[in-house]
Design a protein that fits this description.
This protein has about 500 residues and is mainly beta. Helices cover about 10% and strands about 55% of the residues.
Amino acid sequence: MKVIILAVATLFATTLFAQQPDYALRTAWFTQNGSARNIATGGVMGSLGGEITANHVNPAGLGLFKTSEFVLSPGMNLNNNKFNYRGSDTSNAKNNAVYGASGFIFGFTNNKKSKWTSNAIAISINQVANYNNRISFKGFNNMSSFSEQYLEELTRDLADTNAALRNYIFGSSLAFRTFLIDTSNNAQGKFDGYQSMVPISTGVNQSYDAITAGGYNELAIGLAGNMEDKMYVGGSLTIPIINYTRELTYSETDATNNPNNQFASFTFKESFTSRGVGMGLKLGTIYKPTEYWRIGFAVHTPQVIGFKDEVRASLTANTESYARVRTATSDQLNSGNAGKSNYNLVTPWRAIASASYVFREIKDTRKQRAFVSADIEYVNYKGSRFSAIDQTDMGLKNYYQQVNETIKETYKGNINVKLGGEIKFHTVMFRLGGAYYGSPYADDALKASRMLATGGIGYRDHGIFIDLSYAHVVNKDVQFAYRLNDKPNTFASQTGSRGTVMLTFGVKF
């Protein structure tokens, strides 16, 4: 796998730090979130309509509304993570509050002479992805070290010792100042490069621990029309609002406990925050070819999101008799300021095709008895693109071009499939569903997927509805502690599960 360049040049060293492929995946690979009813039926909403989640999936579904309602959806995530890194197993759990599709829908019935039977407007917010989690794994490694990425960086840039001391303030300079990385000399005693003090051949015990928080929130303003209860068309303007933080602690310790090999341990710490706001568009249509069938199609255009990132880093190394214990921080090299990076990200486009069969499909939806629905969604994960805000800066433009080339090589397009249904007994409804989300990775060695089993109940009477759902997600993914150019990259295999409990309360008015 090609690895993106961690720095462009000395000119950008104090303001720029790496955007990695995972940054793009955070805004692309996620299971669908919404109201409790939508979650309980596996996330099917491409052709079903008639509920607030449609504003974030296929806005044409808003056209089924002829009355108005308010919806609120609080919930809880239950994360249970398992990792295997080089034969060592680790597990952890982290729970947190979430929310689903919430907001207002206003339905209007039109003049009988108009072909447009009704119209609807919706204003809603939905947490598309929740980032509250803990990624933690450890294991023995005698093949590579985290410190080798610094060797690659300094060697690639032909950096002299002055550059190594000052120009890589979030990584290589910290390693050089703590003597984790030091100069190497040739037979004549002259400088000929850099060396790591980590004894890779005898092995080190590695530990990676990242606590993440925040969410990918989406505000949507939708408009839909209903043509003679046969054809529905709609669109929504989406405003993504993203907040992401990560507290990372990475360490390596000498596996031999040899007090004379000039390495005992090092610990790297990083505090990273990323905030973004952008804009996108979702368009869709639903058609009823016969009394019981609904066919839907929707397209989500790429969202353009402007990000502002900040980072702080520190490194403490114990090289025993060589240089003892030393600590260096990015604040010392950057006048006490965090490193900052401003850029744009274009998210992948996606398309959804769907079909629903509604038993006893009549205009009075209160008398409908059941439905079965299925969605097929294609997501072009490799379509994410970073770009510099300042297009006149050729150095930054070239940097982001290399990042984008890496994204095209790292990811691929893939399909997600969802299936769900509901059966209604007067005022009470029972729901079941399931979904499968395919891997976004181009490399078949990186095994990843997400499988969902969902269910729930609902109550509707006198203009009030309450829905409760549970979704159990079985995760399979990979996590990289670091990436190198000149060695095979090792990663942790992630399994485990996530449970989502969602409660939706709504009232018609």
